[in-house]
Amino acid sequence: MKKVLMHVCCAPCFITIQEDIEQNGMLIDGKREKVDMTAYWYNPNIHPKAEYERRKDSFIKFCNMKNVKNVICDEYDMNGFIKEVVENVGEGKKWDIRCKYCYYRRLENAFKYAHDNGYDIVSTTLTRSPYQNHDVINLVAETLSKKYDVKYVYSDYRNTYYEGQKKAREYGLYMQKFCGCVFSFDAGKWVY
């Protein structure tokens, strides 16, 4: 049975993915396989700190509810994230470049952890959101897959976005109103 490290951006995005994989296995190379999955929390970009804590607590609550193995890399680093964006993204702070850096930073941490701890596959719940750029996520993940010699599996769960939100409410989980970084926060509205 393959060991999967699932990078989780938030509990609402994880719900339908976790339930699908638990019930049906993970789609790997066109075939459903039962896997040994561990949920991995690493999201140092989330702003403000209180938002980071709410999302992390919601992730823990869901993992406990569903008895999901998990690892928490509890590193809040808004200063480092902003410094990197200012120094390397440039004046315009264009969302596509900024988001690519954000995906890279979070997924590199997951791939490194997977490599160092004997996982066969890395995947991410970022691909559940219709607001995220799946092409860029996949480009970043494929690059990291080669760098760390750990397979990347892409799953498009966008069709379960609203179902996941509904279930999050039913489970009493925190529902965020923006992507997470300081640049996407404007009084709780999505900003690009």
Q: What's the pLDDT, averaged over the residues?
A: 88
Task: Round the Cα radius of gyration to an integer and report it.
Answer: 16 Å
Question: Number of DSSP helices?
Answer: 6
Give the helix level as a range of percent: 40-55%
What's the total number of strands?
7
Query: For the report, how would you describe the main beta sheet?
Result: 5 strands, parallel
Q: SSE order, as H and E?
A: EHEEEHEHHEHEH
Shape: globular
Q: Which spans of ≥5 residues are poorly predicted at pLDDT below 50? A: 187-192
Strand content: 15-25%
Output the structural class.
alpha/beta
| Terminal CA distance | 40 Å
Give a concise summary:
The chain contains 6 helices and 7 strands; from the N terminus they run βαβββαβααβαβα. The chain is an alpha/beta fold.
